[in-house]
Design a protein that fits this description.
NAD(P)-bd_dom; single chain; 3-stranded mixed β-sheet; Rossmann fold; CDP_4_6_deHydtase; 4-stranded parallel β-sheet; NAD(P)-bd_dom_sf; CDP-glucose 4,6-dehydratase; 15% strand
């Protein structure tokens, strides 16, 4: 997102913890050249307030989160304090910053109360979540709605939330996440261990929802901004709702060299949804946003990036080239 915003001429301030993995995308693509980077914790209210006051942003795009389901079982309090109170902190700071005109809070497709239904979830469906991570995202949605109704609507600040599917792409090294785990295994020439091969997820390349966030952000800064406040789904096309086993087969085939996987452990050890789809009709009709890539293209682009990493390529150039190719294919970006 930082590279894409920089290409569009934005002045960017970032507020985040230090990169949580080594290696990490921020360092590998030299994003510090594009961002006034502030290292801090969104649970630290004074530090967050000072950073926002100095940046004087027109729009805030909130992505900070504890984002791993299994980690939320291990440490639920950090998950809730980051995803719920961190969001409340940011909104409270933003309501006192006169320069802010719009806020976009990115939550998760897992914010919905998942009934394991075959129908895709729409923006008005009930918030919920069985595990601490999913529940914290449903809570964050409710916090945003309360701040929007209590403070921002009357102040003329447009506030929206965005919910994407299982996002994949080059440079993600997060532990306990399928595609990064696969890339680590294949780079090390060992089999990938997976827990639940039958779980179905909406897989999408990272550039797909980012395109949606940019389109929505532009509307939130426009003349009819209030019409775009509220929740938005940015899920992939129906063909991208695939079981884990099919995705890892596609990853292994793209990687080549005998890459393989095996099931380990009990898939019922920790509860995770087995079926979850998003309905993105609202974004399609009101924003003109539609997915570009099939899940197989998303897999291929991801493997291409990690192979470039293995080869010691210029990863900033590789990432910029993927962004430019996407922009050429989908020119509706602001």
């Amino acid at each position: 997102m930082s590279l894409w915003l920089a290409a569009l001429g934005a002045r960017i301030t970032g507020f985040s913890l230090a990169p949580p993995t080594e290696p990490n995308l921020f360092s590998l693509v030299g994003a510090a050249a594009d961002v006034d980077s502030v290292i801090g914790d969104i649970r630290d209210l004074p530090a967050l307030e000072a950073a926002v006051a100095r940046a004087r942003p027109e729009i805030i795009i909130h992505m900070a989160a504890q984002s791993v389901v299994r980690a939320s079982y291990t440490d639920p309090l950090t998950t809730y304090s980051t995803n719920v109170m961190g969001t409340a902190n940011l909104l409270d700071v933003a309501r006192r910053c006169p320069d802010v005109q719009a806020i976009l809070v990115v939550t998760s497709d897992k914010c919905y109360e998942n009934r394991e239904q075959i129908w895709a979830y729409r923006e008005h469906d009930r918030m919920g979540g069985h595990d601490p991570y999913s529940n914290s995202k449903g809570c964050a949605e409710l916090v945003v709605a309360a701040f929007r109704d209590s403070y921002f609507r009357k102040a003329g600040v447009a506030v929206a939330t965005a919910r994407a599917g299982n996002v994949i792409g080059g440079g993600d090294w997060t532990a306990d996440r399928l595609v990064p785990d696969a890339m680590r295994a294949f780079l090390a020439r060992r089999p990938l261990d997976i827990r639940n091969p039958i779980a179905v997820r909406p897989w999408q390349h990272v550039l797909e929802p980012l395109q949606g966030y940019l389109l929505l952000g532009a509307r939130l800064l426009g003349d009819d901004a209030g019409a775009y406040a509220g929740g938005w789904n940015f899920g992939p096309g129906h063909d991208s709702n695939q079981p884990v086993s099919d995705v890892v087969d596609a990853l292994a085939a793209c990687w080549g060299g005998g890459a393989t996987w095996r099931q380990v452990g009990d898939p019922a050890d920790l509860h995770e949804a087995t079926l979850l789809h998003l309905d993105s009709t609202k974004a399609n009709i009101k924003l003109g946003w539609t997915p570009v890539h099939t899940y197989k293209t998303a897999v291929a682009l991801t493997v291409d990036w990690f192979k470039a990493y293995e080869a010691g390529a210029d990863l900033r150039a590789v990432t910029q080239a993927q962004i430019e190719a996407y922009m050429n294919h989908h020119p509706r970006t602001v």
